[in-house]
Amino acid sequence: MALILLLLAPILLLMTTVTSDETIPSMSHIISTVVKVFVTGYFLLASDWIIDHFPEVQGWVISQPLYAAAAIVGVAILVFVLVPWLGRVFVRCLGFGTKGVTRGSTAARYQSRRLGGSVPAGSMFSSFQSMGATQR
User: Fold this and answer.
1) Which of 16, 21, 90, 122 is the most exposed place for a label (fewest CB within 10 A)?
2) What is the pLDDT of residues 68-84, one digit of tens each?
3) Mind spelling out the 3-state secondary structure of the chain?
4) For residues 40 and 20, which has the higher predicted lDDT (pLDDT)?
5) How far from the centroid of its chain's Cα atoms is residue 108's Cα?
6) Which residues, including other chains, have CB under 8 Å from residue 95's CB and lie 6 or more apart?
């Protein structure tokens, strides 16, 4: 149940961010809202579970140190390898390619309609351009 609510939360938040004059929130607002909900939601779920089950977790770590070390390495790989890779895939799907913004993509439409062709330094759009341009 909590997982279903966590998956639906970004949609519900975005629905409530539309103002009375029915303007659509900017792409950076949408993405930052989704990231906040997922990161804080999953972190809170994991930390609550560990706090509720601390004696069992502590006993398991003491009795199974190799499995505990493997779990820590697995989480490290997930956080430092898989998450950045998924971020690049997401950014490329939006239209931020290795040679710049892809013609006809969501990113190109956003740039022409909201930014007028220029990209402010330090903006989320410029960060996505940088992520998309990496070859890794």
Assistant:
1) 21
2) 888 888 888 877 888 77
3) CHHHHHHHHHHHHHHHHCCCCCCCCCHHHHHHHHHHHHHHHHHHHHHHHHHHCHHHHHHHHHHCHHHHHHHHHHHHHHHHHHHHHHHHHHHHHHCEECCEECCCCHHHHHHHHHHCCCCCCCCHHHHHHHHHHCCC
4) 40
5) 21
6) 101, 102, 104, 105, 106, 107, 108
Q: What is the pLDDT of residue 83?
A: 78
How far apart, in whole angstroms, are the C-alpha atoms of residue 136 and residue 132? 10
Region 90-98 average pLDDT: 86
Which residue reads 């499995």 in tokens? Answer: 67
Q: Which of 22-36, 39-53, 93-107, 115-129 has the lowest mean pLDDT?
A: 22-36
Q: What is the pTM of this model?
A: 0.48
User: What contacts 136, CB < 8 A, 6 or more positions away?
Assistant: 88
Rounded to whole angstroms, the Cα distance separating 126 from 132 reads 10
- How many other CB atoms are there within 10 angstroms of residue 130's CB atom? 11
C-alpha span between 68 and 47 (Å, rounded): 17
